[in-house]
Structures are given as C-alpha cells and as structure tokens.
Write a structure and sequence with these properties.
The complex is a heterotrimer. Helix content of chain A is about 30%, strand content about 30%. In chain A, strands 12-13-14-15-16-17 form a six-stranded antiparallel barrel. In chain A, strands 2-3-1-4-5 form a five-stranded mixed sheet. Chain A has a four-stranded antiparallel sheet with strand order 6-9-7-8. In chain A, strand 16 and strand 17 form a beta hairpin. About 15% of the residues of chain A have low confidence. Chain B is of the alpha/beta class. The longest helix of chain B is centred in the first third of the chain and has 15 residues. Chain B is globular and about 35 Å long. By secondary structure, chain C is of the alpha/beta class. Chain C has seven domains: about 250 residues, Metal-dependent hydrolases (TIM Barrel), CATH 3.20.20.140; about 180 residues, 2-Layer Sandwich (glyoxalase-related enzyme like fold), CATH 3.30.1900; about 60 residues; about 110 residues, DNA polymerase, domain 1; about 110 residues, no CATH class; about 140 residues, no CATH class; about 120 residues, Nucleic acid-binding proteins (OB fold (Dihydrolipoamide Acetyltransferase, E2P)), CATH 2.40.50.140. Chain C is built from 44 helices and 22 strands. Chain C is globular, with a radius of gyration of 33 Å. In chain C, the strands form four sheets. In chain C, strands 1-2-3-4-5-6-7 form a seven-stranded mixed sheet, with helices on both faces. A seven-stranded mixed sheet of chain C has the order 8-9-14-11-10-13-12, sandwiched between helices. About 0% of the residues of chain C have low confidence. The chains are: A alpha+beta, B alpha/beta, C alpha/beta. Chains in contact: A-B, A-C, B-C. At the B-C interface, loops of B face helix 6 of C.
C-alpha cells in the first residue's frame, strides 16, 4: 500500500492560486477553513480519478482525505507525476494542501499533520520512500500518532515529546502503562499492523437513462421513452422485493436545462403502467417547454413492498380498498401537486387562520407523520410526571369553539353600525348590500401573536342576519374597524 | 299496507331502474328529521345529492358535512374538494375522523371537476363533498355515473340561481335559513327526488353553540314540521 | 356602585403561572374600589403574607385562601373563615405536598372532607380549559360544605359567555350552589399578559410561539373595574353582590397568628419568666466573679422587665437552649442580632461581648412600639451546625419545627436567559447576553439596553424591545421556594396549622412556605442558626494549639486588649483574620489604626458598602486623624453620634437620630429602618425624606447637615450594619487576630483545614505563614494527614512548630482515601508504590494524582519516576504476583531511557496544577530576568516608588473582585515572588483589555502608582498577557536540556 494523505483547507482570499506573495500567505492561511461535510463528500467524489480507494480520516480540524495510490501510481507515470497532477487538482479547487505519501496511513497522516511547519501552505508535499517510515516518525511529536488527548498528555508529562524515544522502549513497559492504542498506533504507523479506513463510496442509485441523437418535442415520444425505461428500472427492485416510493423524472432540454419532477406514491409499487400513468398525469400539467435531448428516471426512495402496506394502512378500516385509494391519492397529488392534496391537522393556535394546517398526503418518508417538530423538554421539567403525558400543543381539540364552516382566507372589510362603540353589531354593509343583524353573540375576544409581530386583537361576533344566514364578524380592537371573516354555512 | 312494505317496494323498484344494476344501499343523512323527508329514508349510496342555497351562511354545508360523515362511516375515507379555499376544518366537531379526510385544494374549476370525478369513481370512498357553482348538467351526469361505479355519495353544495333544468342527481334539496331569534333553524325542501313527492318541507335545528353541544351522532331533536 | 370582592386571584407565588406581585394586586384592588380581595395561589399560601402587609397598609380586607385541584373533583378555591379553618387549610396543603414531589400537591375530595370544616368552597371552572363540572360533582360539594359552598361565575370573553353563564345558572340551580362573580385573576392589569405568556412558556419549557392553546386566548384575566363587571354580569343578577357577601363571611386575619411560642422551655412548676430571671442572674454571677457591675445589673433588670412585659421569655429561653446544647457538644457558637448584644444575652452565654466593655444600645433591643419578635442569629461552626438543627427537630418534633423558606427570585441573568428562551432567541445569543449581564447584577433600566447591545442585539428590533421589557419585568418575580440557610421556626401548636410545610430538597429537612420577611411581618418566632467558617477555624486552632502542647483555650480565655494584636492589625497584617482581611479592610487599617476593641467594632461596620456609599468613611477618617473638627448641631445629636465622631455608622444611630433630631416616634423610626432595608428593591424611602428633613429643621438643624444625614441614611441601604452585629463580629476579629499573632502555624493550618472560607486561597495563607517564620513541609504520603498538621519545629525555626501540608490540598483527592492512607501508615512506613497501593487500597487514578503532586516520594525524589512507577500499578490489583516481578525486571532499563527530570519551572507549574501553589518558587521569579529587561518592577520595589509615578509591574493574578458599589471598578490582586500588587481597573480599561483581563493568568501592567500611607495601588492603563511567556520558558528549557 502507498497511502497519500491530503490535509486540505479552503482558501478565502480573492487572489488566484500560485500568485500570492509570501507576505500575504500567512494572512490567507489564517482565513482558511476546513471543508465541511457536503464539500467533503464532493471532494471525495472528485478525487476518484486518482484512486479507487478513497476515504476521509479523522473528524473536525484533523479530517484528511486519504487515497491508496499503490495500484494507480504507475498509470500516472510514477508517484512524482501523480503528485504533480494532484497539485494541479488542488489548485483548481483553490485548496491549500499539505500532503504526505508513505507506506502506511499512520505515517502519511503523521507527516502531513506534524511535519516541519504547522502553517498550511498552498502546497507542500513530502514523500517517504518505501520502508523509511520509522526514521520519518522519530522526529515527529507524539501528537502525530493520532492518540486520544489523555494519552498524548500523559506522554508529554513523562517527557516524551517526540516519537523517537518511545520506539526503543520495551513493549511490555508501554503496554503496562498506557492504553492499547499507543502500541497499536505505533505498529500501524510502522506497518507492522495493517490499518483500514472507511471508504467513501457513492450510494447505489437505481436509474435508467435515455438520450436521443437529435431532440424530440412530442410528449408521446417522451412517454414512449419512459415506457421503455421503466422495466429496466424496476427489475433490480423486483429482485429484492422492494417497490418504488418516490420517482424522479429528469429531462435535459436542448439548451442543457434540466427539468425535474418527482412522483410520490402512497404505497410502494412495481407496477410500470401505474407509474407511467402518474408520469403522464404530471406531464399534463408540467408541459414540455422546449425540445429535449434526453431523459432520466431515478428511484429516489424505495421500500419493501409488503411491510409498507401494513404500516400505511393501519389506520384505515377494512372497507377502504387500499389499492384504489392509494391510486386516487397518487393521481390527485400527481396532477394537482402534493401541496394541494392534504390531510387536516388541527393546530393549537388562538388565531383562527392558524388553527389548522394542511399536510400533504404524500411526503418524503422521513417527515411523514411527524408533528411540527419534536417538542424539546428541558431535563428539569421532564421530571414532573404530570407533564410527561401532556398532549403536544397540536393535539388540543377545538371542540368547544363555535367556528364557521367557511372561513374567508382574507378577512373582508365591512362597514358596521353598532349601537354602542364597544357593543354588538347592529347592521352592516357589504358589497353594496345592507343587512340587518337580528341577533348576535359575543364578543369572543382573541388577543394573541404579540411575539410574531403586531399583536392580533379582535372581538369576534356571531351574527344572525335578517335573511336567516349566519356569519362571523370581528372588530379589530386597535382600529375599531370591522371585518367579515366567515360563514356558518 | 304498512309504510315499511311500501318502502320496500320502492326500493325494489329503484334497484330495477338503476343503470349500473347495482344497489349500494342506503345511509342516513346524519339527521333523523332529514331522513324522514327523504323517499329512501336516507341517502342512497352511488348517487348525487344537491344542496341548493341562496348565499353562504345558510347552513347547507353543515347539513352536507353531516351527510358526508354518515356516508363515510365504517372507516371509509371521504374527500372534500375545496374550490374556493374557504373550507374550515376547525368547525368540524371533535369526533370527526380527520385521519380519513382528504382535502383537495383546487385553483381552477376544471381541476375541481376532475378531482371530484376521480374521487367519485374510486371504489371504497364514502363521500365526496364539493361546493361548486359552476357545475353544469354534463358534469353532473359524469359524476353521477362515476358515483354509480363506486358507491360513493356525492354531495354538491350549489347556489340556488344556477339550478339546471335537467336533474341527474338522486336528490335535490333546498336549504333556507330562518331568521327567527333563538335556536338556529333551517327549512329543508325536497325539490326533486327520483322517487317520492317533491315539495315536502322539513325544519331542521342546527347548532353552532359551544356548550351543551350534543355529539353529532346522537339523534337530533324530533321537531319535524309540516308535511 | 355595587360592592365587589375578588374571590379568585393568583399572585406570582403561583410560580410560572400568574404575573403580578401580591402588592400590585392589592394596590389595584384598592384603586378599583373592591370591598375585599382574596389571594388564592395554587396549592400555596406563600404569597399571602406579602399581600397581608400591603392590604394592611392600604386598609383593604384580605381573604386568605388557596386554589385547590383535587384529582377526583372539580377545582375549587378554599377560603378561611376563621383561625381554625385557616389551620385546616394549611394542614390540607401540607398533606398534599407531603404526598407529591417538590412543587406539586396531590389532593382528593376525601381530603377536603377531612379538613373542610370552616372553609368556604368556591368551585370554579374554565370553559376553555376543561369540561364543565357535572351536577353530581357540584352536589357533592354542596353536601360536604353545606351553605359554605359556592359556584364561581368566571368569564373571560370566551367563545360564548352567554351560553356559559346560562349553563352555570342551570348548574347552580340544580346543585343548589349559589353563584358568585369572580375573576380567575392572573395579573393586575392587562399589560401583564405578555409576561404571563412568557411564564407559561418557561413553565412548559418551550418558546411562546410553540405554546399554542396553553396560552390564554386574551388578556382578560386582570382585575376589572366594577362598572365593567356590571356589564359583564348583567345576565347573572346578584352574582356581584354575592361575591361581597362571601367575603363578609371570612373573618380571619393573618395577624391572629402571633405569639405561639413553645411552652416546655422552663422546668415544671416554674414560669418561663422566673426561669429566665434565674438563668440570667446565675449567669451574671458566673460572668462577673468579682461582683456584677452596677451598669450591668441595671441593664439586666431593665431588659428582663421589658422581656417579661412583652412575653418574650420563651424566645430567649429557646436561644439559650440552643447555645447550651452546642456548648455541651463542644460546638463553638456565638449570638448576634439586635437582641443579642444585651446584658441578658451575655449573661445567658449567648454572646461573648461584655456589656461592661461596650455600649449596649437599648433601643435596638426589643421595643414596645415595634411589633416584631426579637432578632437573634446564632453562628455555629459550619461543619457542625447540622447537629444543632437536628437537635431542634428532635426536641420539638417535625410537627412543630421547620426551616424557614427562602423565595428564590429572578435576577437579571436568570430572567434574561429564560425570557430569551421563551422568545426563541438563539442559544448563542442567550449565552452572549447572559455573559454581558454578569457584570451588573443590579439593574437600572438603561443598563439593560447597554447589555443587549453588548450581547449583539439590535435595539431597534421589536424582539429586542420585547426582550428588555419582559426580562426587566420578570426580575424580582418569585421563581421557586428554597430553604433558608439557617432560620428555624418553632411553634407551640403544630406548625403545619400555621403555614404549609413541604419537604426540602435536602433529606431530613422540612421547610415552611414563608420566608424571613414574612415571619418578620407576622412577628413569628424564628432563630437563625447560621454556619460560620471562622468559628470552625478558631475551634480547630484551639485544638491544634492544645495538641502541640499549648494551653487549652476558649473564646472567653483569649486575653483582652493585647497591644501586640492591635499593632499587627494596624500594619494591615491581617490575612486570614475574620472580616478585616479583605482588600478594602486592609487598606483602611493603617489609617484607622485600631487601638482598642471599640475601634474594631467601628472598623467592621465602616468598611461596608452602606457606609461607603453613604460617604461616611472619609469624614470619619479625617476626624479621627484630627484633620476635621467634630461638630454637633445639638446636644441630642451629640449623644447619639459622639462615639463615632459625629458620623452615623450603625443602623441604630440612624434610627436614634430620626427620633431625637427629627422627632420620629420609635415605631416610625423602625419603619424607617425597614424602608432603608428595602428601598433599593422597592423604593419608598422618599416618603420619609420630607418628614426627616422637616423634623430636623424644626429642631434647628441646618438644611445642609440634615441633607447630608439623609444621604447617609439612604446609603445604609440593605447593607447597614447594626452595632450589635458589629460588636459580635469584632470579637471574632479580635480572637482570630490574636491567634494569628501568637500562633501563626496553628492559625494557618486551622484556616486551611476549615476551607472553603474567607478570601484567600490556601496558597496565599501558606505564603503568609512562611513570611511569618513558619516552616511549611510538603505534602507527602509518608507524613501527611488529610488535614494540615503541626510537626515539631527545626533548628532554624526554633520553638514554632512546622506545618505539614495535608492531602486535602490536592485537587481531586477524596477524603476517604486520605483517611485510608493515614490508617495504613500506622502499621509502618510504606515501602513502595505497590505497597502503598495495596495497604491503603488505592487505585491507579489516585496513585497518579499523588505522583503528579510529588507526594509519592517512596521510590525516588523524582516526580517523573514516581509517575512512571504509579502508571505500572494497573487498575486491577488482583493480577498474579509474578507480573509484579516482571515489572521489576525491566525497571532499570526503562529508568535509564526515561527522559530527564523536570526543570525547576516545570516542577513549580506541576505544583500549581495539583495544589494551586508551590513551596519551591514563585512562577513569576522565572520571568524576572525578562521582566527586568522590560523595566518591570517587583511588588517589593513598587513600595519604594512615589505617588503619581508611571510604573510597570507584573504578576500572577490571584483575585478579581468587582464590588457592586465600586461603579464598575475591578480590584485585581497580583502576586510575584516578593509580595502582592494591588491593581485598580476602571471599567474602560477592563473593557478595552477584556480578553486579557478575563482569561490571562499572568499580567504585565502599565499604570500609575497611587499611595495612601503605606498602601500602594497601581491604577492600570494597559494590560499584556504574559501567560504564554511562562509556557514558552518551560518549553524552551526542556528543549534545550
């Protein structure tokens, strides 16, 4: 094995790589940051050209990208050439890199992190020739061994600042006094014991693509293409007894624009016709904006076929013919959009407009059924048993409230004539029509939401009109203005 | 001949008449007084019911919702196709089975038509409720056919003025609120029924009071008037 | 207008639910013209005393009650009609609390049946929160309470009040419970609604925005104006009038609770008065073997007369009993407090301040006008106080004795943190805010804005404005009940019929719901059994002296007025001495130059925030130095102030001045004292201002003098010291100074053995002892005990014993392990690390700890070698013996390859790590060469420089202090190898060098030298962090070896 360890930092200066003066180097380094999770994954993807075995080793500040270039170096024309290519690779990506190449991961990591200088340079590389790791390690500080903080501190306390003096000590003396990690790390770095690292590999994605020689503009051709692709896509799933839960369709336009849409399923399926039907429905609303040159179908989410069925329909009693119902939900959501096909979730909020929430029937699996987010209880309050079983804010029923069956999304301003300034409405004018209020009930006073912005303050009245209809009015307390807000239809 | 046997005869007749040749049975409208008004003693599954009212605020939606919940008994799901975005679920009483309720919010009439059609033809669906003024005869006929396939009850709340001449619905009811002070009352007129006498009127007590609210499943007061 | 009484009103003693202080509710009820107000906290009577005090003053009828939530019946308000019913209510709540975890109360309807007699039950329901009660439930109340049961009609603009009232009317008719109007009040004005929402959020532990329907729908739960109520209750005729009728049935007033003292204090057949008289005169005879001085005899006679007149014998007997018990157990104790410095207390042995030697101010002793119990605090050795407390529980039983409660209130920091969370601020933002709030714990409103700005909040932001408003409103709110440090309440009858009792967090303790102020208001007996570290230290010192062959001493045996002691004190050589060891005190001593006991009394009282703020220190010093004439406007004023050279220093003097100079009655003077104690919290002293100034003017005192006196009186604030306290403290000052002067080794060891206490860390105390010629010997498993011990001195130090440092100084050393080491050592010296480990049963972590502390000198004198061998002692000591031999085999080889021993600096730093100080050298001495190059002066050299000079100095930071009175100034003490350096940092400098100032361990300081007599300060202008320099030297010296 020949392990290449890259200690990478992102540069945040505006200067192009390789041009900075030495004076500004330190400055630039000071503003360099460690790549975060998403970027790490991308870099690992990108660096695949250099090696089949790639992985991030270590966490936080010390995270480093490690590659086994043993099998690939000759393909680049030797290690030196490979290293040069890598240098270009880092410069393209505006990375500061401290790099070491050695027989073992331990040695490469140690040299990359604890070499001559602590400061990240634009590019620094040291190659330890095969078999020479012991000598390279001897001059490095004990911290280079990737030991736990306690062990490193203990070694330093005993005066072992560098690895060298540790190497000739009797193994038993060390084994007796230090955790096993010390001997293990030494042996790994020297190559006496192999060290493995977790390899970065992209997740397996089931997908099927088709590209045309020219471009197509008709929906029929696209559907035909899907018809052709779907069986390919489904076959591997079928073999494993799993079905599609979310399906992505991605079309590449002539101008290389990507148009994507996702079809969700209430229950996973392997039915190609059903999937095609949903895709077609979707196409009716999505339309083709330009001729396309290719399409791709990908399974975003898959689920076991049988299990899923039981879980999802546990709350539905037997008369529901689940297959038909699922199809309905899928078709409605497919054509009208997921947001338009909702379950009703009551919300505990005094403001009428906020008293319920529509939750799409079709949602990515992870959030399905979850409430507004888990309610975090401080440990102090957790102790109280009476509160533990308390229902979440959402579960409070609103049964005691007289609420209209129809609520205007936006309260409609009206002119109201009241007997007393604070009193009940007497008659009102709406849309040029005047109506007498025969009787009214209220006020139900709602004052809420001061933490969201200007506090909402309303006195609601239920009013019986002279034509027998019933409506819901409120007086805004701050301004005294009246609004019509709903109908008891 | 007792009323029961007479009713039995009518039901048999209806079954013969039915296009689909299927009889899905009869469910309560959710209120005893209303049931007594209806020739079948309730709503027949697989049919459409129209609720006509002049303006919002009459109580038509409340009656239709009661009917919908009754039709969606036995764990059947129900669908509300909300064209205007006015439907306000918090008005539903506490024991409404929200987990079986699906609300479709449509921006356009054609979407609403399509959604109703899809829902009505899905087997197992208990009830489909929509408020739609723009619906026409052709559409109602489609819906009726769809409902016949699945056994769902279609409940259409509409404006009085847009009453089409031809009627493909099983029932057409007129809802007129009373402006009398006191307990809320609406009178319900049977405008049309496949079988039975049009013109029958019944008075129904509704309640939007917060307290002493009887659960909707309990029998409503026997205060049927007239007929 | 109709009469209305609010029957259902919660104060903020219903923690995290209600949002107004009791006095706010009372004030608002008075304003609205209510005929009465009930304070009915949820399962609690904690707020009633504050309400009572406010209501009494405002002449409002207060009903005492509580909201009770039985698990099996509708919730109800219970109101006490008379004393007996009140007792049952308190018992009921005590029962409920005893069944439930802290802060909760579990009751059932059956409990109401047991204790319901004489209580009015006002059943209530909230239509928004619960289903209405059923007729049968209400009928049960009717059956149980008869005509004492009511149904409350409460409405808060809910969804349908008309229907709700109709329903209530039906229920009332069917269950035969009369309807009475009530508010279900949670705050006095609607403006408190947001705060109430925040409290709900805090209670639920989530942001307000996520509290949903747990919040009230509107702001209606306030005290309504009566005309508003009339409109509201239009449909329920008679409901308002009935509320007043209900209130009329309650005749109980909290004032009835007084004078319920224990009875069994005197032997059978002897009245308490006779017994007290006998004890006092017996004691007097013992105190003055040569005959009781006339002055003392007169005082005792007068005091006894007053005690008998006011029936306080039981109280004095209780105190005497505690002191007697402590003495019998060899626990050092001393009384102080208003009543303590009396001739009677001296004779009873409660205090050791001889009334013949000091002036006892009779006025501060119990007075007829003042309606309050006498106040005596007893200090006990802090390590043994628990024995005294348990004695009280044993003697009176848990029914009759309990700890005083303490109301823990929101302070700036806790309020800002909780409000921040409730408003959904980010965690980091809250932390940043909390940090800026460290600096000011008192909070004028403007400070809030500054802090918010410092904490990174945008002041124009709506959320910030809300935050400031809510958090500053929350400050001062009760948060929970805790137990007082030492207040014990003892009663004649069962205590739980006086006030609900709950179990304290600490096992074996029970706590009442009322705090010290509440007891004061009601004049209930309480004895403060406090813990005082210095008493422990003095007792330990006595023991050490005796153990080292010295005399057996007690507090009374210490020779009085020893000139050597005053000479030492005047030099400010007082590190470790009680009270006068603080920097402020030390800087005062050379100017005050105390020469007699009364000077110490003044010293103790004068260097306090009160007198400092009242600007009394400098006039006193100038007059004492003869730089300023002492003048008195009148002869009466002279009588009051002559002892303190015309400057009022003690609380008693302020009161007496008000009497003789401003014509106050003694009762009014006492009100003034109360106002002084509370004005910072509540304001209200201004009411006295005019009266004081007018009174003095009428007595011919100049406006200027009067105004100055007024300012001085204000300055006392909550910190004013009564002379009686000062005298008791001064005695401990004298005793500890005497011990330090004559037995420095024992004194040093005793102080450290009594840690934590005092201002100084063990390191400074050790250093101080060394500077006084005491030999200090290092911690060593072969010689050290847990405590510091005295060992025979060596040739150099002669007679003075040496101090052997104890294992208690090592951070992380458990006492039990140390005791095992000492125990094992009795069998003979330890031969090796392994030997020690086996015999004392020590695991590897402890061996490492000892090795690192250089206390493991068995194998070699080398710390590193000791560590190396300790490391070989595996955790499991059950491994076979041959393994030990195996280790021995490779030992020489390893030792040879071990890195070199530590450098001197490394040794010193290692000492600091394990014990916080080093006997080898001072770390700064290693920087000396470098410092000299930078022209930095040592502490010793600074003393030779003049006032006003610009100097540079450096040292290790010992102490950062920011007294609340010092206007943002921070006092920092640095230390180097030659002594300590006193720094003064103004707020601006602190701010500019915040990073260094907060975190750095070694400072280089540029500043201006200020000299007042022998005392030298450096007013810092610039700080540099030298911590890393020290580390660098340690690093380099190792690298170069």
């Amino acid at each position: 094995m020949r392990i290449l360890c890259l200690r990478l930092r992102l540069r945040h200066d505006g200067e192009p790589p390789g041009r900075e003066r030495t004076a500004s180097l330190h400055h630039a380094a000071a503003r360099a940051t460690v790549p975060d999770g998403a970027l790490r994954a991308r870099l690992a993807d990108d660096v695949e050209e250099f090696s089949p075995l790639i992985g991030w080793v270590g966490a936080g500040e010390s995270a480093s990208l490690c590659l086994d270039v043993g099998p690939t170096a000759h393909g680049f024309g030797g290690e030196a050439a490979l290293v040069e290519r890598l240098r270009a690779w880092t410069e393209q990506r505006r990375l500061l890199a401290t790099v070491a190449l050695a027989d073992t991961l331990g040695a490469a990591w140690a040299v990359a992190h604890c070499g001559e200088s602590e400061e990240p340079a634009t590019w620094r590389c040291r190659v330890i020739p095969p078999g020479r790791q012991a000598a390279a390690l001897a001059t490095l500080p004990v911290a280079a061994l990737r030991l736990s903080f306690g062990t490193t501190a203990l070694l330093q306390e005993l005066g072992f600042s560098h690895i060298g003096p540790l190497l000739p000590l009797p193994r038993e003396a060390l084994a007796e006094r230090f955790p096993p990690e010390l001997l293990l790390r030494i042996d790994q770095a020297l190559g006496k014991v192999p060290e493995l690292f977790a390899a970065h590999r992209p997740l397996p994605v089931w997908e099927a693509k088709l590209a045309w020689e020219g471009s197509i503009a008709s929906a029929e051709s696209l559907v035909a293409a899907w018809q052709h692709l779907l069986p390919q896509l489904l076959e591997p799933l079928r073999q494993r007894g799993r079905g599609v839960a979310r399906l992505l369709a991605e079309q590449t336009g002539e101008s290389h624009t990507l148009r994507r849409f996702v079809v969700g399923l209430l229950r996973p399926t392997l039915d190609a016709d059903h999937l095609l039907g949903l895709l077609q429905l979707r196409l009716e609303t999505e339309r083709l904006r330009e001729p396309i040159v290719g399409t791709r179908l990908a399974v975003l989410e898959e689920s076991p076929l049988a299990v899923q069925q039981q879980v999802l329909f546990a709350d539905l009693a037997p008369p529901v013919e689940s297959q038909a119902w699922a199809t309905l939900v899928e078709r409605l959501s497919g054509r009208l959009g997921h947001e338009a096909v909702v379950r009703v979730r009551p919300r505990a909020d005094h403001q009428p407009e906020r008293a319920w929430q529509g939750v799409p029937w079709l949602q990515p699996r992870e959030t399905n059924g979850a409430t507004n987010g888990p309610v975090k209880a401080s440990p102090l309050r957790k102790r109280s048993a009476s509160r533990q079983g308390a229902p979440a804010a959402d579960a409070v029923p609103s049964h005691a409230l007289p609420r209209p069956t129809l609520l205007l999304p936006r309260p409609q301003p009206i002119r109201v004539f009241a007997v007393a300034p604070q009193g009940h409405p007497h008659r009102f004018e709406s849309g040029g029509r005047e109506q007498q209020v025969v009787e009214s009930w209220g006020p139900e006073r709602l004052e809420t939401g001061w933490w969201r912005g200007p506090s909402l303050r309303r006195d609601y009245f239920r009013a019986l009109l002279d034509d027998g209809r019933r409506c819901w009015l409120f007086r805004e307390l701050r301004s005294g203005r009246w609004f019509l807000h709903g109908w008891f239809d | 001949m007792t009323p029961n046997t007479l009713e039995q005869l009518r039901e048999d007749l209806r079954r013969v008449e039915s296009n689909a040749g299927k009889a899905w049975g009869v469910v309560s409208s959710g209120r005893e007084v209303v049931d007594r008004l209806l020739p079948a003693g309730g709503l027949r599954r697989g049919t459409l019911v129209e609720w006509l009212a002049s303006e919002p605020g009459s109580g038509a939606t409340t009656l239709a919702l009661d009917a919908a919940r009754s039709a969606a008994g036995d764990g059947r799901p129900m669908v509300v196709v909300d064209r205007r975005g006015w439907f306000y679920p918090p008005a539903l009483s506490i024991d409404w089975p929200l987990e079986r309720l699906l609300v479709v919010r449509c921006r356009r009439d054609d979407e609403a038509f399509w959604a109703c059609d899809q829902a009505l033809r899905t087997s197992g669906v208990g009830a489909v409720l929509t408020q739609c003024d723009a619906v026409d005869e052709r559409r109602l006929r489609c819906w009726q056919l769809a409902a016949e396939q699945s056994g769902a009850v279609g409940l259409v709340v509409r404006h009085l003025a847009r009453q089409p001449e031809a009627c493909f619905s099983d029932l057409r009811l007129l809802v007129a609120p009373s402006c009398a002070v006191g307990r809320r009352r609406v009178s319900l007129t049977l405008l049309r029924a496949r079988q039975g006498r049009p013109g029958a009127v019944v008075e129904v007590a509704l309640d939007d009071h917060a307290y002493s609210l009887p659960p909707p499943t309990a029998s409503p007061r026997r205060r049927a008037a007239g007929a | 207008m109709l009469r209305y009484a609010e029957l259902h009103c919660l104060s903020n003693f219903t923690f995290l639910r209600a949002a107004s202080h009791p006095d706010e509710l009372v004030a608002r009820a008075v304003e609205l013209g209510y005929s009465a107000l009930a304070v009915t906290d949820r399962h609690s009577l904690a707020g009633v005393v504050e309400a009572h005090a406010a209501a009494k003053e405002a002449d409002l009828k207060l009903l005492i009650g509580a909201e009770v939530h039985p698990s099996d019946a509708p919730s109800t308000v219970l109101l006490a009609t008379d004393r007996a019913a009140y007792g049952r209510l308190a018992r009921l709540l005590t029962l409920g609390k005893s069944r439930a975890p802290k802060g909760e109360c579990h009751l059932t309807f059956a409990d109401l049946a047991t204790y319901g007699e004489g209580l009015l039950a006002c059943v209530f329901a909230d239509p928004a929160a619960s289903t209405p009660p059923t007729v049968s439930q209400l009928s049960a109340y009717r059956e149980l309470f008869g005509d004492r049961a009511y149904l409350l009609a409460e409405a808060h603009c809910g969804p349908d009040d008309r229907a709700w009232f109709a329903e209530l009317q039906t229920l009332s008719r069917r269950a035969k419970l009369p309807l009475a109007a009530a508010g279900g009040v949670y705050y006095h004005t609607p403006q408190r609604r947001p705060l109430q929402d925040v409290l709900t959020a805090i209670r639920l532990g989530r942001p307000v925005a996520e509290c949903g329907k747990e919040l009230f729908a509107n702001a209606e739960r306030h005290l309504h104006a009566i005309d508003e109520l009339e409109l509201l209750y239009e449909s329920l005729p008679g409901a308002i009038a009935r509320s007043a009728e209900v209130a009329d049935r309650c005749r109980f007033c909290l004032d009835e609770l007084r004078y319920e003292y224990p009875e069994e204090l005197a032997p059978v057949g002897v009245t308490p008065a006779e017994y007290l008289r006998k004890l006092a005169w017996d004691g007097a005879a013992e105190r003055y073997p040569q005959g009781v001085p006339v002055k003392v005899r007169d005082l005792v006679t007068r005091e006894l007369g007053l005690i008998e007149e006011l029936h306080y014998e039981a109280y004095f007997l209780t105190v005497w009993d505690l002191v007697r018990f402590a003495r019998s157990q060899d626990i050092l104790c001393q009384g102080r407090g208003s009543a303590a410095n009396s001739a009677v207390c001296y004779c009873l042995g409660v205090t050791a301040v001889d009334p013949d030697r000091t002036d006892v101010l009779f006025e501060r002793f119990i007075s007829k006008e003042r309606d309050e119990a006498p106040d005596i605090d007893i200090d006990f050795e802090h390590e043994r106080r628990e024995e005294v407390l348990q004695y009280v529980y044993d003697k009176y039983g848990r029914e009759r004795a309990a700890m005083t409660g303490v109301t823990i209130r929101y302070r700036t920091r806790s309020a800002s943190r909780e409000v921040g969370k409730a408003l959904g601020l980010l965690e980091e933002q809250i932390d940043a805010l909390a940090k800026t709030f460290v600096d000011h714990h008192r909070n004028p409103e403007t400070k809030w804005q500054e802090c918010c700005q410092d904490g990174g909040l945008d002041l124009d932001n709506r959320q910030t404005a809300q935050f400031i408003l809510l958090a500053s409103e929350l400050v001062g709110f009760p948060r929970h009940l805790s137990q007082h440090v030492g207040g014990m309440v003892v009663s004649r009858g069962p205590l739980c019929e006086m006030v609900p009792i709950e179990n304290a967090a600490m096992p074996g303790r029970t706590v009442i719901e009322w705090n010290k102020d509440d007891l004061d208001v009601l004049g209930l007996l309480k004895v403060d059994c406090l813990a005082l570290g210095m008493l422990t230290a003095i007792r330990k010192c006595f023991t050490l002296i005796e153990g080292a062959g010295g005399p057996k001493l007690t507090l009374a045996d210490v020779p009085a007025e020893d000139p050597a002691v005053y000479e030492m004190v005047s030099r400010a050589d007082t590190m470790g001495v009680f009270q006068i060891e603080s920097r402020a005190q030390m800087s005062m001593l050379p100017r005050l130059r105390p020469a007699k006991f009364y000077d110490l009394v003044i010293e103790v009282a004068i260097v306090r925030p009160g007198p400092i703020q009242g600007n009394m220190v400098h006039p006193y010093l100038r007059r004492r130095a003869g730089e300023e004439p002492v003048e008195y406007p009148t002869e009466e004023v002279c009588q009051v102030l002559y002892k303190t050279l015309g400057v009022p220093i003690f609380q008693e003097q302020a009161m007496k001045l008000a009497i003789v100079a401003a014509g106050f009655s003694p009762g009014e003077a006492d009100q003034l004292r109360r106002a002084m104690a509370a004005w910072r919290r509540k304001g209200g002293i201004d009411a006295f201002r005019d009266k004081l100034l007018d009174g003095m003017r009428a007595n011919g005192i100049s406006d200027e003098f009067a105004e100055r006196l007024y300012q001085q009186i204000c300055g006392f604030g909550e910190y004013g010291f009564p002379e009686s306290h000062a005298a008791s403290f001064a005695l401990l000052v004298y005793v500890s100074a005497w011990l330090k002067c004559h037995y420095p080794a024992a004194f040093c060891a005793a102080l450290i053995n009594s840690q934590p206490m005092g201002f100084y860390a063990p390191g400074q105390l050790v250093r101080d002892a060394r500077e006084h010629g005491v030999a200090i010997r290092a911690i060593d498993v072969s010689h050290s005990d847990w405590d510091l011990t005295l060992e025979p001195g060596d040739e150099i130090h002669g007679e003075t014993p040496a101090v052997r440092l104890g294992l208690r100084l090592l951070q992380g050393m458990p006492e039990a392990a140390a005791r095992r080491i000492v125990e094992a050592r009795r069998a003979g010296p330890f031969l090796s690390t392994t030997d020690l480990a086996r015999r004392a049963d020590l695991g590897q972590p402890l061996l490492l700890l000892l090795a690192r502390a250089d206390a493991l000198r068995l194998a070699s004198e080398n710390r590193r070698a000791a560590l190396w061998s300790a490391l070989a002692e595996r955790r499991d000591r059950n491994r076979p013996l041959f393994a030990e031999l195996g280790v021995g085999d490779d030992e020489p080889a390893v030792a040879a390859s071990l890195p070199p021993t530590l450098t001197p600096l490394e040794e010193v730093l290692a000492d600091y790590r394990s014990a916080g100080f080093s006997l080898r050298a001072h770390p700064v001495s290693f920087l000396r060469e470098q410092l000299r190059r930078r022209q930095s002066l040592s502490a010793g050299e600074l003393a030779e420089h003049k006032h006003g000079e610009l100097v540079r100095t450096a040292g290790l930071v010992l102490l950062r202090q920011r007294p609340s009175t010092a206007k943002g100034i921070t006092f920092v003490t640095l230390e180097d190898e030659t002594g300590v350096i006193n720094l003064v940092l103004h707020a601006a400098v602190w701010q500019r060098y915040r990073e260094v100032a907060r975190a750095a361990k070694v400072w280089l300081v540029d500043g201006r030298l200020e000299r007042q007599g022998p005392i030298v300060h450096v007013v810092a202008a610039r700080l540099v962090d030298l911590t890393s320099n020290l580390r660098d030297i340690a690093q380099r010296s190792r690298d170069f070896q």
